[in-house]
Amino acid sequence: MIPSTAQVMPRPGKMVSVRDLKFTYEGGVEALRGVNLDIHEGEMLAIVGGNGSGKTTFAKILNGLLRPPSGSVVVDGKNASSMTVAELAKTVGYAFQNPDHQLFSSTVEDEVRFGPRNLGYPEAEVARMAGQAMDAMRLGAIRGLPPLSLRLSDRRRISIASVIAMDPKVLILDEPTTGLDAAETKNLMESVSMLNREGRTIVLITHDMRLVAEYAHRVVVMSNGRVLLDSDVSGAFSDLALLRQSSLEPPPVTLLAHGLSDHGIPKDIISPQELALRLLMLRGERQ
Ligand code: ADP
Questions:
Q1: Of 133, 220, 269, 277, which is least packed with CB atoms within 10 Å of its CB?
Q2: pTM (two decimals)
Q3: Number of folded domains that form the chain
Q4: DSSP type of residue 80
């Protein structure tokens, strides 16, 4: 595969290391059945999988919203079981799938200031941290407006800004583009990519394989509370049967590449530019 800039692997240190992680909800649903996974510093990792595969449960454990009954979770070199919920939440930020579960203040600015204020930072520092987060998510023009009166794409940006205002090393985004149109998705993902390029580790939980193809460095497929595949992006796209088993649909360009594989086109193509280049190379070889 010809790597895009998004797919150049970042630094190798481990930011999160999870071994044999199991979680059962009250009532008996076994949401995680032995997850093993490392998340590397500075990467953009996509976690994909069908509904109910355990993605959100996993994210909530990393962020401290749920405490794991068994297995080992090491975050930024510390055992999560010895960290307080506040310490975990400060290291791993989690933006909910539904932003309205996070938003309650009367203005965007108050909303984004809430996190650092709650962590006890002095007011000047609160203003600085919130200002940076609002700039990163391009919220300056709407800082005085009530969050719940705004459209979904703005509410998503606000919920992400209110998490990054606490300056977490790892940012988990749970289905951040669901319900957004193509332009809103691109705008949001540009801001997220910038956060990643500045060094923040990003975990992107999504169903959208086009988003994975365009932005992720690595992809983990979850199924039935376990990791089914942990691979570079092209590896994940070469196994159509596995993707479909996990209710995931590859981008049209990948399906086209699979259809052309008998003619010498590789199956792991994930961008139209790459397919065009391969077709040109093939034409050159045959002339
Ligand atoms: P995903 O994010 O991949 O859709 P979840 O982590 O939300 O998966 O869910 C994993 C499993 O845990 C599913 O069977 C789901 O129904 C169950 N589950 C999720 N949240 C709860 C809860 N609060 N109480 C009981 N079961 C839950």
A1: 277
A2: 0.89
A3: 2
A4: G
Contacts with 70 (C-beta within 8 Å, 6 or more apart), sequence order: 20, 21, 22
Q: From atom 9 of ligand 1, which residue's Cα is the shortest distance away? A: 52
Q: Residues 239-276: pLDDT tens digits?
A: 888 888 877 777 888 888 888 888 888 888 878 888 88
Quote the ligand 1 centre to 47 CA distance (angstroms).
Answer: 15
Residue-averaged pLDDT of the chain: 89
Give yes or no for a contact between 60 and 66, defined as CB atoms under 8 angstroms apart.
yes
State if residue 51 touches ligand 1 by the CB under 6 angstroms criterion: yes
User: Does residue 57's CB lie within 6 angstroms of at least one atom of ligand 1?
Assistant: yes
* 1 occurs within a structural domain: no
Both 180 and 275 in one domain: the answer is: no
Say yes or no: CB of residue 31 within 6 Å of ligand 1.
Answer: yes
What is the CA(110)–ligand 1 centre distance, in A?
Answer: 31
Whole domain around residue 258: which residue ranges? Answer: 251-287
Taking the C-alpha atoms of residue 242 and residue 249, their distance in angstroms, rounded to an integer, is 10
Closest ligand 1 atom to residue 51 Cα is: 4
The residue ranges of the chain whose pLDDT is under 70 are 1-12, 287
Closest atom of ligand 1 to 53 CA is 3
For residue 203, give the nearest of 28, 26, 34, 63 by alpha carbon.
Answer: 63
Whether residue 98 is found in the same domain as residue 232: yes
The pLDDT, as a whole number, for residue 1 is 44
Same-domain status, 279 and 215: no
Q: How far apart are CA 265 and CA 279, in angstroms?
A: 8
